[in-house]
Amino acid sequence: MSVTLRVNGKSHTVDVEGSTPLLYVLRNDLGLQGPRFGCGLGQCGACTVIINGAATRSCILPASAVKGEITTLEGLAKNGELHPLQKAWIAEQVPQCGFCQNGQIMTAKALLDKNPKPTEAQIRDGMKGVLCRCMTYYRVQAAIKRAAKGGVA
Amino acid sequence: MTPANGIPQHVEDALSRRNLLKSAGMLVVSFAGFSGRPANSQPAAGPYPDVDYHQLDSWIVIHDDGSATFYVGKTDCGQGTGTSFRQLMADELDLAYDKTTCIMGSTDITVDQGGSGGSTAMERDSWPMRRAAAEARRVLLHMGAERLGVPADQLAVSAGVITVKNDPSKNVTYGQLIGGRKFNVTLTGNNIYTVTGQAPVKPVQELKNVGLSPQRYDIPAKVDGSLKWAVDMRLPGMVHARNVKPPFAGAKLLNIDESSVRSLPGFIRVITKGNYVAVVCEREEQAINASRALKVNWEKPATAPFPSSENLFQYMREVKPTSRSKPILVGDPESAFANAPKVIEADYDIPFQGHTAFSPAHAMADPSNGQMTVYSNDMKSYGMRRGVADFLGMPREKVRVVWMEGPQGYGRTAADDAGCEAAYIAKEIGRPVRVQWMRDEETAWDTKAPAFAVKLKGALDSTGNLVAFDYDARAADYNHVGYNEPDTVLIAQLMGIRRAKPAEGSAATPGEVYAIPHRRMSMHVVSLPLIWETPLRTGNLRDPNGPQSTFASESFIDELAAAANADPFEFRMKMLTASKADDSGFRRARSIAALKAAAETYGWDRRPSPKPRGRGDVLTGRGIAYAFRGQTVVAEIAEVEVNVRTGKVWVKRLVAAHDCGLVVNPGSLRRTVECAMLHSLSRALHEEVQFDAERVTSVDWNSHPTLTHTDVPEEINVVLVNGDPNPSRPDLPPYGAGEAACKPMLAAVGNAIFDATGIRLRRVPFRANRVLAALKTARA
């Protein structure tokens, strides 16, 4: 079937089975590299995109069920300038391998958009479903706090 | 192709491209393609002979603008080794760090340094890089002397500019000197570890970038989504494959009903040989659906492949070992035990723990031009190249592995399976194929850290000194399959290929230098009934045996300290200071310094454990443990909160004092140590591979849980101890970092739980239900 998606401000129409998870359309049809496969079960967060402001697991969401604007990691920078979270990520040198960081950043973005000044407990709770096997959690939390303070220096 | 002189094509490309790039003003940015491979270079058609490490040009290319590209045979698993290599090589070359780039780990364009493993990046493999850079500097200086008409000893070099010392107006840059020419310098040395030019490396005092913490160059592209990972590699005509694994360990394939998938959209072919089965489809989701729909009849094995995880340790203690090392004997432990006033004994158990990489194994293979290119995140890309070539029966020069970034290595991608699978299928169907394992497949079938059952015995004299120590370890590590070998990789096993003699495997001794008058240390390897085609394959997981052996020994040392009514820090210090003997790396002195630094940083209060039982639901305690790995010593302290109502353990604070000799990039090192500690904390609190007598039942993040954001300590302090109190000690070289910090954590946490609760937990992970059960048993 024909599925039309609005991704990072642009419309795309693809011809896929309606049940195809959004992740595979984003990656294999639209050539995006931010969202990645980690579990296919919605358990790890590697595939996270933001749909209408909510951090969403694209590996278990049928492409045909998407209603609304999709933002991927590639869509965070505006006019060539990185998003404050991305700047904070570089300042804190967060990633080890970096494979999970799409999910960390996108989930943090949705978290801060709803709650710009989260408490320590709110950060832990809001991020708890996003896994990292290099265990960069401490740095991820530091970067979120840094971005929430508005500082990147 | 690579010319007969062994200088690889990329050098020719770089040199012939330079004028074009110079005019476009994009010399450096042109190196922003995947793996740092030149973005505008066409994939070479092959063949792909070995890159000659004896050619200086294989290591370093200097461009017209004076910038340099370093080509190294290592892979960066996320610890920032590439950045550190640039620091070291820039220092030896006398070039500014930001005028350098580093290309890593692709077998056709970089020398074979084996990729990564064993925390050898700085300790072993940075040396030939440094010597190559030093030699390049020497040759350039010689060229500068000729150009300027002044003897080399009257020249100074700084940031790639050679200047006449007493007339700075006379100068020439590296870019001007090498001017489109190759070095054409042949290095000497019998192997890649000893390769060298004529120039010596600099003394440590002259290294300027070393000791600084430039930001990792790979991070921006990982944060903005622009990095092309191995999972992102696509070629025209590429198709997707998914494996169908046996539903029972040791199952035999009876037949496949291909009609169950033939009409599915995109179906191309079922690939099968022996017990190996994969389905190939045009699109990724089609391959996933078809692999699940394919009807395969399997026959269960006649006997159980392994005991259930519940019965594992009993089995390991009773079964006859497959091998035993000659015990390490000091003094006369037998009579020391017989005569000691106090002897205590304990058994420690460590289950199989998985890599459970964040992304399952994956690779893309392209069979074009009669060659085989594998795009892979394999940390030992050179080993994969040999494995793929031998498995397919292709000459090695027709095979290359292009290394690209992927999820954490830690040993899994040294034996990552998907490369051989993708190459096999690509050869069968003649099209580029991408293979990726699914989550359940990866968690159940990845390589595992061996389970350990350790028996310990200690004797205290009347004043509480440890006089005899007996350590007896059994590791379920028979047929250890740590590498991509053509006769042990899983696809080969499933196809019925058997190595005549399985790897013996190993148990380990604890890494400490305590002066104990009498000791015996015995190491045994045991085997599970099923040896081949088993999901309980053991491989290398980040210091393969260290966390297990150290959990047992450093927890038991804590038990002995408690039995002697001694402070756990002082008990250890007494055994470290009881002898003055040391090795050439001052390991004993540095162990003392590390323990002291950890205790000082934490604010250690000296008293025996456990502390008087607190009131309320949450009890707090602190535990210490120490270990060395090679010449790297690390002491760690964990402060815990134990909720006695729920059994939940939260590690509130972690301290590490870490000495790995010369520190190249302190920022990268701190983060590496921090993350290594948390990785081991995850093994202490959560991780265990569970199985029944038919199959592994840990198949996802619920059934094989990991550390999450909610577990993270409130505070982590990493102290880089670089030196000991010995003023006459020579400068230390860099030793390995990464794996050492994984060792002491399990014991530090267990010791802290004992301090808080008085309960000694002798089995990891300390999951809430197990802690609660132990608390209840103690109360009863």
How does this structure look, described?
The complex is a heterodimer of chains A (153) and B (780). Chain A has helices at residues 22-29, 84-91, 101-114, 120-127, 137-148; strands at residues 2-7, 10-15, 48-51, 54-57, 69-71. By secondary structure, chain A is α+β, with helices and mostly antiparallel strands. A 5-stranded mixed sheet of chain A has the order 2-1-5-3-4, sandwiched between helices. The longest helix of chain A has 14 residues, at 101-114. Chain A is globular. Chain B folds into 3 domains: 9-228, Aldehyde Oxidoreductase, domain 4; 231-301 and 361-436, Aldehyde oxidase/xanthine dehydrogenase, molybdopterin binding domain (Aldehyde Oxidoreductase, domain 4); 579-779, Aldehyde oxidase/xanthine dehydrogenase, molybdopterin binding domain (Aldehyde Oxidoreductase, domain 4), CATH 3.30.365. Helix content of chain B is 28%, strand content 21%. Residues 1-6, 17-36 and 38-42 of chain B have low confidence and may be disordered. At the A-B interface, helix 1, helix 2, helix 3, helix 4 and helix 5 of A face helix 5, helix 6 and helix 16 of B.
Outline the fold blueprint.
The complex is a heterodimer of chains A (153) and B (780).
Chain A: E1 2-7, E2 10-15, H1 22-29, E3 48-51, E4 54-57, E5 69-71, H2 84-91, H3 101-114, H4 120-127, H5 137-148
Parallel strand pairs in A: 1-5
Antiparallel strand pairs in A: 1-2, 3-4, 3-5
Helix pairs in contact in A: 2-5
Chain B: H1 9-24, E1 60-62, E2 68-72, H2 81-93, E3 100-104, H3 121-148, E4 155-158, E5 161-164, E6 167-173, H4 174-178, H5 219-223, E7 239-243, E8 252-257, E9 267-273, E10 276-281, H6 284-293, E11 295-299, H7 312-318, E12 323-324, E13 328-330, H8 333-339, E14 342-350, E15 353-354, E16 362-366, E17 372-376, H9 381-392, E18 399-403, H10 418-429, E19 433-436, H11 439-445, E20 448-449, E21 452-460, E22 466-476, H12 490-494, E23 518-526, H13 546-563, H14 568-577, H15 587-602, E24 618-629, E25 632-643, E26 649-659, H16 666-685, E27 715-720, H17 745-757, H18 768-779
Helix pairs in contact in B: 2-3, 9-10, 13-17, 14-15, 16-17
